[in-house]
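Hi D.,

Good news: the full-assembly prediction came through. Inputs first.
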Amino acid sequence: MQSTVATGEATSLPPIPFLARRWLAALFVFYLVAAVLGAEPLLNWARAGQQDSWRNASEEALQRWATWVAPTGLSGAHGPLAKATAAWVAALAATHGHDPSLLAQAAHEVARDVPPPAAAGQPAEVAQPRANEPEPGATPPLAQEPLEAETEVAAGPATAGAKSVLLVGDSLMSVGLAPGILAELKGNEAFQVVRASRCATGLSRPDYFDWQGNIKKLIVKHKPDYVVVAMGGNDAQGFREAGDVLHMGSPAWDTAYQGRVESFAKSATASGAKLLWVGIPKVRSEPFWSNLKRLNTLAQAGLAKVGGTSYLDASTFLTTSDGKFATYLPDDKGREVKVRSGDGIHLTQPGGARVAKGVVEWLKQQK
Amino acid sequence: MLFPTVGYALFFGAAFVLAWGLRTKLSWHKQVLLALSWLFYALGSPRHLVLLIGVSLGATLIGQRVQRAPTPVLARRWLGFGVVLALATLVVYKYLAFFAANLLELAAHLGWRPQLAIAEIELPVGVSFFVFHAISLLVDVYRGNVKQPLTVGDGLLYVAFFPQLVAGPVVRASDFLPQLGRGPDPALLERGAGIALVIRGLFKKVVLASHLGLLLADPVFESPDDFGGLQVLLGIYAYAGQIYCDFSGYTDIAIGCARLLGYRFRDNFDSPYVSMNIQEFWRRWHISLSSFLRDYLYVPLGGSRGGRWATRRNLMITMLLGGLWHGASWTFVAWGALHGLALVVSRVWAESEWRWIQRLRQSRGWRPFAWLLTFHTVCAGWVLFRAQSTEDVGRIASRLLQAGGTVAPSALVLVAAGVLLQTLPVPVWTRSTAWLQRIHPTAQAAVAGAAVVAIDALGPIGVPPFIYFQF
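Then the structure:
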């Protein structure tokens, strides 16, 4: 056998035993070493899968495997290494003065023309919190950071009697929608707009950015008459609540997410402001959309329990007449314009302007 | 299916056992590889499997006609038909919406507003690559570079072979079909450094490229207005590192996996950022694509045989089309134009007989300056490549001129790792992996298992998708 390694001549190798003896053993050793050292990440991988019987079986099996391997101590190295990586990432992000985009969906949002993992039939695979990630409250990179840096008073000096409008949300608000609303209200002295959105945020991960706390501060500071919310694109992922990891799609997750929308809406309307929740518009990827549709339903259910709130279905402004996703739609003059960016999720400027019309119409209807 | 996933690790293990187990029954071996390749594609994008099979079957059947044509004229006609058909597929799936939107805009400028809706066609994963493989099959057969008779099974497997299927490298039919005739080569498994290549590729892609992108490049390109000039500059360098690590990492994995199965792909990257001029850059960057464009586009156009101006024209056409191949957008056309112009300027400079230019080129300070100029030309190209629109390019350029922005030392280290690791001399890499090939396969496998877990821990939570997938 040694001679075959030394010469490596194709002709000197017996055909099947050659594989069976050495390389078959090698393959087995590869899986064994990876499964022992990586018992923890494997378990998380199984947990992140779609809710079905295969997932449940693999999670159970890998859970048993992890417990069984744990006493050897070999599976313990991955956690500290991953934790050190996360700490390094957070430190670097802080000095760089920008959010570390820890949310996996944010990574997909910025990748040009590549559908989110959901489109590849692996929803939420990368969007699952890992067991070794920072505990909520342990090292929240941005949770406590005030939003002032991103807040901007758009209209000029307050005119007497002008109503103040607070725009909050994630990239759906920041890119496309907020610029569209500002353009639509340009020169309109009846409204004064404050932008306070932040990309790559949502309600799922308060350990990353705490909207529940920040909305209270924003209400006290700006005393808005109206609050317009557009978020949720980053929320299709599991999270922790009261120490438990809840998986996207489970009933417990649904209840928790609906509760978060409700409490957010309560805080926003506590001082009498009226709230408009802009639903996530239909996206190109069908599997991702089925998750987002669920979020829209949960948001509506949460809002139904809070007075002074309304819901705007953004899809109606951005889909074809028969309700299909569209990258291009005709404008007023019948010209085809690009309304969605290449990722099939975000809005372009003309796309944002279309939804903004609906928002401004709502603002003008309020008394 | 993506390479850095648990699913692929299981898939590849099965392919490895089946492929080597059937090594002595060559036709079974190839049929199993073909079925696995189609499964690999279907697991990612089931809807377009029919397109992949259609394109590869069409190219193979027409390729057979080319090979068996009784006269050269007939062979040439079949070749033309096949190439037009393959390119038509690419145009329909990749460029139709872009062309239509631009035509409608032009029509609107001229005052004509037809009531037309542009249908959205989803870009099939890897279409640019499998169409190029189909073209290589047809042209290599026509040129007589494929000696053995083309069989349907070999043609289908060449186009669909899963390591190169979705994002290259662009493997030549004349390189690969003879290997399929001989069957897998165990020497490549034993001594081909396949395991080391896969580990190196995973590290570049999952650790370096992901962090560079998420932490430094993406934020700057997404909202340049939030950053000072220094941070924007670092973001651009970071993108240069990201796209190199992402793409060369991906091809390392592809080449490594092919070697583990006993097939050889040519190298695709050769330390591109050490280049002293832009011609050298294109000999070192995405070699399989640039040599494809050279042999199948530049040379048929006339290459450098038709005098200076014809050469320059051919360079520009090649680079503009090469730019458009990367995506249906004006930013990619601009990227191609920049590289075409740079190639022309570089050629004029190299051919210059002016004495002061020759003296300058021999001076001591010239080499560092030439390296800096080349690298920054490439970086300027990456800004066009990464920006979402021509307006974004303007925003980034204007931010670049503004002072300010703090840069963390750890960010510099990360960018240096992404950009400068390749400047290490080649023997450093070969020596560092040579020991891995000398130890017993089971020991190699144990190292690989540990490396994969460590790479997962060092990477970010969730690996962003591969940049080159849909080009």
